[in-house]
Amino acid sequence: MLGKMSDSMWLLARIAGVIVLVLLAAWAGLWAGEKSASKPKLFDESGAPSAAGNVRRIPEPPIFFFANVPPEGDWNIALAEVRMAAAAGVHQYVVPVGLPWNESDPVLETALGRLKAVCKEDAEARMLLYVRLDPPEAWRASHPDETARVGDKTLPYASVGSKVWVEEAQRGLTMLWDAVKRSDVNASVRGCVVAALDGGRWRQAEGYDVSPANSACFRTWLRSRYAADAALQAAWGDNAVTVDTAAIPAEPDREDTRQVFYAAAELQRQADFVQYLSDQTADVIASLAAHIKTATEGAAEVIACYGDTFETSRSAAGQNGLSRIFHSDVDGLASPVSYVDRGLGGAGGPMGPIDAAALYDKRWYLIDDTRTGIVHAGTSGETGRMEGLRQDDVYSVQQRNFAAALTHGLGLFWTDPEGQGSLEDAEMWEHFGKMYAVYKDYAAARSATRGETLAEVMWPPANTFLVVVADEAGRAYQQCDAKLNEQLLVRVRDSILRAGVPAYFCLLQDVLDERAPRAAAYVFLNTFRLEDAARNRLHELMAGYNATAIWMYAPGYISDVASADNIAATVRMQVKAFDKPVTAGSAYQLAGVWMGKDETFGEAIEWAPLFYVDDEQVDILAKYKSVERASAAIAFFEEGWTSIFIGEPALTPALLRELLRMTDIHLYFPETPAKFYDAAYFGPYLLAVHGKETGERVVDFGADQVWNVQDLLVPDIGWLKKSAMLLPLKTGDTRLLKLTQDVPFPSE
Questions:
Q1: How far apart are CA 647 and CA 584, in angstroms?
Q2: 163-182 and 107-121 are packed helices; what angle lies between their axes, rounded to 10 degrees?
Q3: Do residues 539 and 489 both lie within one domain?
Q4: Residues 373-420: pLDDT tens digits?
Q5: Both 402 and 497 in a single domain?
Q6: What's the CATH code of the domain at 114?
Q7: 403 vs 435: CA distance, rounded Å
Q8: pLDDT tens digit string along 540-563?
Q9: Domain encompassing residue 379
Q10: CB 442 within 8 A of CB 712
Q11: Residue 120 and which of 295, 408, 577, 623 are 20 to 30 A apart at CA?
Q12: What's the chain's Rg over C-alpha atoms?
């Protein structure tokens, strides 16, 4: 075995000693309740990994009220919410308008009426138009070949492969913009949110679209990819197929965990179609954005409701085209806060790799559609509240979502989910107004100090960052996507948010291109396909960064062929595949700080393929419970990097903390007698914590610096000169902490 793990007892004793010192320092130095009436200076983040660092500066925070009223809804409810937003100092709105399909379409008059009504309620209004591009029923009836179809079922939107639909949608957008330009609300409109397909989020939620339009477009894509029939036949292993006759394949069984990847005979055929869906969806969005830019002479901001990378389990939903969109005229993306674990005390994770957008000078917007329990009470104009739902709990969840947006430099849409008055509450808008002011002050302070040379250390420092890496291309090779993506993309994401380290979410290509920040550790969620050049490049980067690579489930499994040898080459350990389906679920083999010996993780699900480590030169971390084989191992290399392989699709907050601890990566929440796994979000001189349970936890900022700490959401709470401190929280409490060094708290 290699040296770093050969004396594990000494390592555990040393870490335990450090934790004791941190706890003593925190208890001895605790100062609570100090006030800070000033607005401490915030520092430039030059040279540090920051999701917000590359985003264009705008005069107001990227925060909007989304007046989400359905076509047949009561617009007066939205106007009541607009009045409350304006009174709270929030003057930015997303306004749903219809797309005209001909010059006399009455939706134009309705759209202008809505825009004028908003401006009448708020003379300072700045608006984004939310436009659903799905054609009406009459259009679909007259264009059956252009309408999406699964089997014999016609879907309520056009096929993503329909050129006719895209061209007519572009004409409709031109008519809409011309009408706005001629109106007296022109100066108040700043851009457009484009939405289509299932839920308006550019998803294909069920089955394979086999419409004539989609079949023809798929063949065009194949012609571009393969050029000649011989190349297609070789790739598909089918001497009878031609580019002109290639058919959309039948959708496989997506639920069978004993067939995770497509069988060899179907592998490339299915992968091509799944990749086509994402490419085509992204290209349609890009073409619409380019059209809007041309129609508005580049003045309009274009946002697409796209990017549900983690949350959309179907690999064939068309959601794996972010890389193409990042290179387009699209200015931003919008996706809701996760629909998994989003309640009080929940992680509230992002649906996609939110930090990647800023790497391309784009903005990602979180859609906060929290259900508040408030309902408009009909003609009386009053509102009612759902029994049993405490408004303070609702505010806490909204504060968590705001804190996630601020720390990661994201935009935010506060929306009424069903247009029924769930935000029609003056007290709630008072909370929103305070959060809006916090974002504005923070952004202004950062902008004012940008470019200065700092003597102080950047916080959080790069050597504590964890980069979470999602791969778009690898998903095209999954047959079983629903259960695997739930385990790998959703649960692991939430475990990372609860691990107590700064997490940065991006794409594999961002790492390969060195767009992503240099970090202490990288978690590769689903890098199922790696060519030799990409694998070698990752090894070079990990060595150059002296980083820890945590590889999940089947990293690099597919190259020219699918083989466990490819995984072994990726993780640089001897890895083998079981020759039959095996039940997962593992037992930790060490006596750790966060996990005890034989403590378990992972679900008892039968997977095939499933992989194990068979290598005497590495240190075994865990074994499968159903079979005596190693499910996780760690190897330290002379080149300076560390490789950790986890063979089953599971990673808990406790296990991740153990892995980071043994590789000497700083944890901002050290061990206490009661173990807390709160959701934590980090940004430049910011730490947000959302309490999962009630109790006192220790926050360790690192021994190198001492900070003044202020809660931006509750400004009369602060701590003076801390490198570690106790943070008492109740379930659902949200603390948004700002760190400063040069401005002391005023004395009483």
A1: 9
A2: 40
A3: yes
A4: 887 765 555 666 766 678 899 999 999 999 999 999 999 999 998 888
A5: no
A6: 3.20.20.80
A7: 9
A8: 999 999 999 999 999 999 998 999
A9: 63-207+277-449
A10: yes
A11: 295
A12: 26
